[in-house]
Design goal:
This protein has one domain. By secondary structure, it is mainly α. 26% of the residues are buried. Helix 4 crosses helix 5. It is built from 7 helices and no strands. It comes from Allomesorhizobium camelthorni.
Length: 128
């Protein structure tokens, strides 16, 4: 494994560790909202779940949607080399191929795989 891959893995691992609900195997809605720079109530909109669902971090639907978000941010981190840049891209960069919607909007609509495919295309030299 190259030094760049090790650095990336450590960066993503640190990001994932920072999201863990204390003493559980779950992603914390509160910690993810803080990382994304949004209020917890707005996380419901970004995950596509009802705001009351955020009170139950073990909700499988909530965890699944947050895992999709983290997958896309992790893939974007690989592309940008920086978690903060990846989060900024995720929340703000309009993707022309998808009607100028952001990755966050697409993931909230259930299109995480399309965003991951777009990131793979960028990694392989396509222009966004």
């Amino acid at each position: 494994m190259t030094q760049a891959q090790l650095t990336h893995n450590a960066m993503v691992s640190g990001f994932l560790d920072s999201l863990q609900e204390p003493r559980t195997p779950y992603i914390s809605p509160r910690r993810l909202s803080k990382a994304l720079g949004v209020k917890v109530a707005n996380l419901a909109q970004l995950t596509g779940v009802h705001r009351n669902t955020l009170r139950n971090p073990s909700s499988e639907r909530l965890q699944g949607r947050m895992r999709e978000m983290v997958k896309v941010i992790s893939a974007a981190t690989e592309l940008t080399g920086d978690v903060d840049k990846a989060i900024y891209w995720y929340r703000n960069e309009p993707i022309v191929d998808y009607g100028h919607r952001t990755a966050a909007e697409l993931v909230a609509e259930g299109h995480a795989e399309a965003v991951l495919a777009f990131i793979r295309d960028l990694e392989n030299g396509a222009r966004g």
